[in-house]
Specification:
Rossmann fold; 276 residues; 17% strand; globular; alpha/beta; single chain
Length: 276
């Protein structure tokens, strides 16, 4: 299914897939990625949803922003959805994209019909020692130099360091990573860390009444997979662990992850929309 209405709105590159009148589904990528990371899942999702993919500010094809604060970015997404006339949107966040999704639900609970967090660490204590390749590529003192020299092969190796087994990263995903500057990436990482350090994600979501699905790879090398169960403090949260999957179920197990997501978002999709 071909995308349509590719645009730049509120400082973000936006791509739409699927029928425009279908239930809306917003996909939010994580740090060091872009909307193309969802490409293996999009055909199945777009068969049932109006899928909205964004490149967050400073990522992929979106220009740098004055602020990468998680709440500010969530506000941009809320404004985008308002402009599109959308209500009761199912929102999905991968990795740190889950923090933006959570902030959106906090900011506009009537706008978010349901929430799916994929590989989203619940708090900073759940972060594992990072793979050596990522530490060199992303952090000081060599990060800036290596980032400037990175080739498609290096990007694929970096993605591979977060998966449980070798996976062929789609070209669209690699191109999205290439579009991110080191400066923007570091600012995004600092903003995400500040958001989680202020208050952990399960505690934030427990204060809301938003249906929640949490998906984790059982072999995630970035976040402790057992930490997924910390979301059990959120009333009626559904928690699923995907066996033999690492940090990127989007490309490691798009079929299984997509099926769980579609099953979850189908519940209540036809309920009349409240005022957002």
């Amino acid at each position: 299914m071909s995308p349509y209405d590719v645009e730049l709105a509120h400082g973000m590159h936006v791509v739409h897939d699927g029928p425009s009148q279908a239930p809306p589904l917003l996909l939010i990528h994580g740090s060091g990625a872009a909307g193309g990371s969802w490409s293996p899942m999009v055909p199945a999702l777009a068969a049932r949803h109006h899928v909205i993919r964004v490149d967050l500010p400073g990522c992929g094809q979106s220009p740098p922003a004055a602020s990468y604060d998680v709440r500010v970015v969530a506000g941009r997404l809320a404004a985008l959805l308002d402009d599109l006339g959308l209500r009761r949107v199912a929102v999905v966040g991968h990795s740190s994209g889950g923090y933006v999704a959570t902030a959106l639900a906090e900011h506009r609970p009537g706008l978010v019909r349901s929430l799916v967090l994929i590989s989203t660490g619940p708090d900073l204590d759940a972060l594992l020692p990072q793979p050596l390749l990522l530490r060199f590529l992303l952090g000081p003192p060599f990060g800036r130099l290596l980032w400037s020299l990175r080739s498609d092969a290096w990007i694929r190796r970096g993605i591979g360091a977060t998966t449980a087994r070798p996976v062929d990263a789609p070209d669209e995903m690699v191109a999205g990573v290439r579009g991110i500057t080191y400066r923007a990436f570091r600012k995004v990482m600092r903003a995400n860390t500040a958001y989680v350090a202020e208050r952990d994600v399960p505690d934030r979501l427990a204060a809301l009444d938003t249906p929640l699905l949490v998906l984790f790879g059982a072999a995630d090398p970035r976040w402790d997979p057992a930490s997924a169960h910390r979301y059990g403090t959120v009333p009626n949260a559904r928690i699923e662990l995907l066996p033999d999957v690492g940090h990127v179920p989007l490309i490691e197990a798009p079929g299984a992850a997509g099926e769980l997501l579609l099953d979850f978002t189908a519940v209540g999709a036809d309920t009349p929309s409240p005022d957002a």
